[in-house]
Design brief:
The chain has seven helices and seven strands. By secondary structure, it is α/β, with parallel strands linked by helices. The radius of gyration is 17 Å and the shape is globular. Bound molecules: NADP nicotinamide-adenine-dinucleotide phosphate. The site of NADP nicotinamide-adenine-dinucleotide phosphate has 29 residues, from helix 1.
């Protein structure tokens, strides 16, 4: 059976690599991004995969955009098997990083985008997921959100990913019948990860897809590296 998979933040980086990986695996992909008209790579993929790729507008930090996207998706499809909450930011402004200069606004933007928005997106798509086969919801988080591994930098980003991980744990217990995990995609050579990062977007996407494709309900509420090992909270 062809799986239907929705990926947020899919116009570049790990999200775009996930779109390519899942098209390669024969899935039906819904690629969500902020600006579909400017998403050149996605539009090129669409031209070559018109039956299996749908592009939808979704700004995850805008609730109206979330509800419009959910409406449009449910008009076109009656189920969703996998939701990948990939979109995220890592603010480099001092207001989000430097003790002494931190502000509500600087830190809040990171926490809203990385931790709160994925929960609101999940809430909006939960009923469609419930109609899916072996439904799964996956957070693309970070090892930087592990309290065990916490280092002394990027306070807002680390807090946001720790909160994202907690959201996954709580949702794994609230969303009966849906397998929920949180993941670390590796240190990946994207705009966020930097050009010298050791893992390519394609390697990260293939690893994440292997983890997601092999998920069984007993794995709900866990934190996985893209290579498949569990990561301590
Ligand atoms: N790269 C790494 O080494 C690494 C490591 C650990 C975790 N991660 C996580 O992996 C995920 C993907 O990261 P990446 O490396 O691919 O980053 P990236 O290259 O910076 O891409 C980020 C993606 O998220 C989208 N996005 C940001 N804010 C959004 C919003 N409000 N609504 C919708 N889309 C939004 C961006 O869209 P626009 O193009 O419209 O801005 C872009 O598509 C993130 O959650 C990140 O925290 C990355």
């Amino acid at each position: 059976m062809t799986e239907r998979i929705l990926i947020t933040g899919s116009n570049r980086g790990i999200g775009l690599a996930l779109v390519k990986e899942y098209l390669k695996r024969g899935a039906n992909v819904i690629a969500a991004c902020r600006k579909p008209d400017a998403a050149n790579d996605l539009n090129q993929l669409k031209a070559a995969n018109s039956d299996s790729l749908t592009i939808v507008q979704l700004d995850i930090s805008n609730e109206e955009s979330i509800s419009n996207a959910a409406q449009s998706i449910s008009e076109q499809f009656n189920s969703l098997d996998v939701l990948i909450n990939n979109a995220g930011i890592n603010s480099t402004v001092p207001e989000a990083r430097n003790l002494g200069q931190l502000t509500n606004e600087g830190m809040g933007q990171v926490v809203v985008t990385n931790a709160i928005a994925p929960v609101i997106v999940t809430q909006a798509l939960m009923n469609l997921l419930r109609q899916g086969t072996n439904p799964r919801m996956v957070m693309v988080s970070s090892r930087m959100g592990s309290v065990t591994h916490a280092g002394g930098n990027a306070i807002a980003y680390r807090m946001s990913k720790a909160a994202m991980n907690m959201a996954a744990k709580v949702l794994s217990q609230q969303m009966n019948g849906i397998t929920v995990i949180t993941t670390h995609p590796g240190h990946v050579a994207t705009d966020m990860g930097g050009a010298s990062a050791p893992v390519t977007p394609a390697q990260s996407a293939a690893g994440l897809a292997d983890v997601i494709d092999g998920l069984i309900p007993q794995q709900t509420g866990k934190f996985y590296n893209y290579t498949g090992e569990e990561i301590p909270w």
